[in-house]
Amino acid sequence: MSTLHRAEEADRADPAGADVLPAPAPPRPLDAHRPRRVWSRVLVGAALIAATIAFVYPFVWLVSASLKPRSDVFDNRLIPETLTFDNYVEVWNAAPMAAWLFNTAFVTVMATVTVTISSALVAWGFARYRFRGRNFLFGLVLASMMIPGAATMIPTYLIWDSLGMVGTLTPLWAGNVFGTAFYIFLLRQFFLGLPTELFDAAEMDGAGHWKVFWHIALPLTRPALVVVALFEFQAAWTDLMRGLIYLRDREDFTVPRGLKSMLDQFGFGGEWHWELVVTASVITTLPMILVFFIGQKQIIQGVSSTGTKG
After folding, report:
1. What is residue 198's three-state secondary structure?
2. Can you tell me the distance from the alpha carbon of 235 to that of 112, in angstroms, rounded to the nearest whole number?
3. What is d(CA 279, CA 287) in angstroms, rounded to the nearest whole number?
4. What sections of the chain are H helices per DSSP?
5. Residue ranges matching CATH 1.10.3720.10 in the chain
6. Which CATH superfamily is domain 96-304 in?
7. What is the pLDDT of residues 50-96, one digit of tens each?
8. What are the pLDDT digits (tens) for 87-146?
């Protein structure tokens, strides 16, 4: 008897030794948690919709009020009963809106450019170079964020007054030449996340410190730079406090300072032309909304990619 026949007879005698196909798996039970997941998604979606309405409604009301005549401004109708665009014509005659918008644009651009470049330079120094006292100095930079703005308001005013800059637009943006602690921290974290091999290889090829920073580091940190620029754009565009402190002439007002003067004159000043106040507010708000929609992708990308290394 051959070996093959013996193995077949052994398998017949001992079925346990033979290869047995596995039993089919029992049918999977229905997911008992699926209804709970559906309800959780519905609740999250409803909460997001409610939050969206809560945030969007004030601006929608503002736009609607700017399209109403004086007697219907506070009727709380989102669709005006009497639609008029005369408010957008009258507001330019009631206030120097063109000069205010130009002043605000100038201050915003200067503040954004200076703080982005200066903060990037300081952050690059803290991230790339090692020197004695680096961590201590960086700690002082972070500690400066804890100082209330009211504590430095008077000393800062005295400095600008001694320089003869009070009454000009310079104090509204020139302080950004020295960087801002929050932006320095944000950009430093981004620089720390970049591979140092790129910079080492560039320096071995003969690139200087400035060339490495300008041609390699900055292009790689563009998402973070866009975030810093957009944050500062919003802060400078809506800055009222410094306008109240340093600006004197009506023609030199920025838009927030001008809106404050319009509110004093047409809102609570006795004339009660609220349609002009809300119309000027819409004109002021639209550029910020446009900037946000243009840069929202860079904001999300920049914020999500920072803070990953310390």
Report:
1. helix
2. 9
3. 14
4. 3-13, 34-66, 86-94, 97-128, 134-143, 149-162, 181-192, 196-204, 209-212, 218-220, 222-237, 241-246, 255-262, 274-304
5. 96-304
6. MetI-like (1.10.3720.10)
7. 999 998 898 899 999 899 888 888 888 888 888 888 889 888 888 89
8. 898 888 888 999 999 999 999 999 999 999 999 999 999 998 888 989 999 999 999 989
